[in-house]
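Hey, I'm writing a tutorial for new members on how sequence and structure tokens pair up, and I'd like a real worked example in the thread rather than a made-up one. If someone can provide the structure for the chain below, I'll link this post from the tutorial.
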Amino acid sequence: METSLRYAGDSKSLVIHAKEKFPLNTFTHLQGHAELDTKIGAPTYLCAMIRQYFPDQYASLGVGVQYYRRQKLWYTVRGKKEFPVTADNSVNFRIKGKYDVDEKLLERKSRVAAEFTWDIMDVKADQDVRLKVGYEVIEKVPYFQFSENNWSLTVNNIGKWKVKYSL
């Protein structure tokens, strides 16, 4: 199970995030994840999704349902496609998208992003760094992420930020 502690500037509370993947076959799994808000002591997000990976194409596709405490039930489809820029895969260009629709099929939300990642291994002994520069296409917002081993800091140009610590 992957677990992390997350805090965002607009949330005012620490969130515990957990994700588990249950293999269905070689390139398909059932993925479940949830968030527990430590301020209210209750789950604020639950998701179950079937994820299919296409390793020869550096791509994935997921279909599932999500439950938000305030927005209730949503259906979701998400996909990613990665293009290696360097032969050693340390620099990659990624396109990712997500499309959500509410349970009544009335409200819709979309997200599309393009990003470059640079993985720098062994900066020092046991220290790996990832730099990510991206652009949210629909919101027209650039963002930057710095990750070092278990820590990640993401910021954008409209003042939003979040910190993640993977346990």
